[in-house]
């Protein structure tokens, strides 16, 4: 457990990292194409174990066919599955989307709720999805979205020792200002895709390296790149 002095130092480092991320990715935004909170909810459910790029290829036809929560709630299961099949785990996703929309229609007057607990009551919705919908659908920073990139990079940056997303989220919420909770997630996701990949992070190109206790220690490609950089 960190001492108060260590916690203060970690918090300052987290703020320094956040400032650099904001300079590196000033225009970072949600990668899922959407026009309404409902579309964002559905797209986020589809994004589980699937790339945002693939989801964005699927959703235009999906949203044209099912433009409202009522339409999704009454959707033919097989038709819905066929439209989202390429996103993977399509049977379970179709089941959750339809059930979530049925609850939205029956209990929330056909509108996606803007409260964390209400969102968590929807089938297929955990904190990650709820945080995304609240932040990008309603402008509410209720928590820190922890996906695979945020989990990996937050651990590499020494800001959490946990594996469970809920515990990682609590650690990050204690380190970052609430208005920046979603800024952190979005920009860290961009950085994870561009620089800090899972197996071969590009530490030699990383502008967070001097703030990262893992820099140069993960992946042979990154280590070799750093060595070449020191010799040049």
TrEMBL record:
Pfam families: EndIII_4Fe-2S, HhH-GPD. It catalyses: 2'-deoxyribonucleotide-(2'-deoxyribose 5'-phosphate)-2'-deoxyribonucleotide-DNA = a 3'-end 2'-deoxyribonucleotide-(2,3-dehydro-2,3-deoxyribose 5'-phosphate)-DNA + a 5'-end 5'-phospho-2'-deoxyribonucleoside-DNA + H(+). One of its GO terms (molecular function) is DNA N-glycosylase activity. InterPro entries: DNA_glycosylase (IPR011257), Endonuclease-III-like_CS2 (IPR004036), Endonuclease3_FeS-loop_motif (IPR003651), HhH-GPD_domain (IPR003265), HhH_base_excis_C (IPR023170), Nth (IPR005759). Keywords: 4Fe-4S, DNA damage, DNA repair, DNA-binding, Endonuclease, Glycosidase, Hydrolase, Iron, Iron-sulfur, Lyase, Metal-binding, Nuclease. Its cofactor is [4Fe-4S] cluster. GO terms for biological process: base-excision repair, AP site formation. Signal peptide: none annotated. Residues 46-194 form the HhH-GPD domain. Its EC number is 4.2.99.18. Binds 1 [4Fe-4S] cluster. DNA repair enzyme that has both DNA N-glycosylase activity and AP-lyase activity. The DNA N-glycosylase activity releases various damaged pyrimidines from DNA by cleaving the N-glycosidic bond, leaving an AP (apurinic/apyrimidinic) site. The AP-lyase activity cleaves the phosphodiester bond 3' to the AP site by a beta-elimination, leaving a 3'-terminal unsaturated sugar and a product with a terminal 5'-phosphate. Belongs to the Nth/MutY family. This is Endonuclease III. It comes from Halomicronema hongdechloris C2206. The gene is nth.
């Amino acid at each position: 457990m960190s001492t108060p002095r260590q916690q203060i130092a970690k918090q300052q480092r987290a703020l320094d990292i956040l400032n650099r991320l904001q300079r590196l990715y000033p225009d970072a935004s949600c990668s899922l194409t959407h026009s309404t909170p409902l579309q964002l909810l559905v797209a986020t459910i589809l994004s589980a174990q699937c790339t945002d790029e693939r989801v964005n290829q699927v959703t235009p036809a999906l949203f044209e066919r099912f433009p409202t929560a009522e339409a999704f709630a009454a959707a033919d299961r097989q038709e819905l599955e066929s439209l989202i099949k390429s996103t993977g785990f399509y049977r379970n996703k179709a089941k959750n989307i339809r059930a979530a929309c049925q609850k939205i229609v029956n209990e929330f007057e056909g509108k996606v709720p803007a409260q964390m607990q209400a969102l968590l009551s929807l089938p297929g919705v955990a904190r990650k999805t709820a945080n995304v919908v609240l932040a990008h659908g309603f402008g509410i920073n209720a928590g820190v979205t922890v996906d695979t990139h945020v989990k990996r990079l937050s651990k590499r940056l020494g800001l959490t020792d946990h594996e469970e997303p809920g515990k990682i989220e609590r650690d990050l919420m204690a380190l970052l200002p609430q208005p920046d909770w979603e800024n952190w997630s979005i920009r860290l996701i961009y950085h994870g895709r561009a620089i800090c990949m899972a197996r071969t992070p590009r530490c030699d190109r990383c502008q967070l390296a001097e703030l990262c206790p893992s820099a140069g220690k993960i992946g042979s490609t990154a280590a070799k790149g750093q060595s070449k950089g020191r010799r040049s």
